[in-house]
Amino acid sequence: MRRFIVPLILVIAATLLYFLQTSSHVDNIRSLNRIKVEREELLGNADMIRARRDHIRDEQLSQISPEERTRLNRLLPDAVDNVRLIIDVEDIARRYGMVPQVRAFTQEEERVGAVVRNTKSYNTLLFAFSVQGNYDTLKRFTRDLEQSLRLVDIQQISFRIDNQEDDFYTYEIVIQTYWLKDN
């Protein structure tokens, strides 16, 4: 009889140990496996959505004419083009007999601080220059600058009087332009 009692006690102890200790871990593993399956399914759905988005974007881009694409690239280019910006500003200024004097180019991160994390999908560039002329000429110049294809914001305008007798001023202008980041 003793031979049957000791193994019976060991089987009962093992069963109790399993249900008291191991079963909670097994339940935890099962729930983690269910979460894993759900997340894999979500990742699969995200991949399908991303592929669909790319397909729709490519369809829409193919419908844009080359002329419109050129205009869009000029409005919001993929890279900063300092020379093109200077030429655009000079062309507008020359219409009114003004000659811009370039002062500085500064990327926004440089102006704000040494360690900046830009999370936007675009970058900015500040362009400082000066022009000379009367107030009416400045108004027409800024209107044309505003209506140009290149996306710019006038950040600052200051002026000084060069000659008290004339209606002739030197205007210090800072504009901000944008371009898309590389993805």
Which stretches are poorly predicted, pLDDT < 50 over at least 5 residues?
110-116
Q: How do the strands line up in the largest sheet?
A: 1-2-4-3
Which homologous superfamily in CATH is the superfamily of the largest domain? Answer: Ribosomal protein S6/Translation elongation factor EF1B
CATH level-3 fold name of the largest domain: Alpha-Beta Plaits
What is the element string, with H for helices and E for strands? HHHEHEHEE
Strand residues, percent? 15-25%
In CATH, what is the class of the largest domain? Alpha Beta
**Mean pLDDT value:** 83
What overall geometry do the principal axes of the alpha carbons give?
Answer: elongated
Number of domains: 2
| Helix share bin | 55-70%
Head-to-tail CA distance between termini: 78 Å
Main pleated-sheet profile: 4 strands, antiparallel
Number of helices: 5
The strand count comes to 4
Structural write-up:
With 183 residues, the chain is of the alpha+beta class. It contains 5 helices and 4 strands. It has 2 domains: 63 residues; 104 residues, Ribosomal protein S6/Translation elongation factor EF1B (Alpha-Beta Plaits, 2-Layer Sandwich), CATH 3.30.70.60. The longest helix has 61 residues.
List the helices and strands and how they pair.
Blueprint: H1 2-62, H2 66-75, H3 82-94, E1 101-107, H4 108-112, E2 122-133, H5 135-147, E3 152-161, E4 169-180
Antiparallel strand pairs: 1-2, 2-4, 3-4
What's the quick description here?
With 183 residues, the chain is α+β, with helices and mostly antiparallel strands. The protein is built from five helices and four strands; from the N terminus they run H-H-H-E-H-E-H-E-E. The protein is elongated.
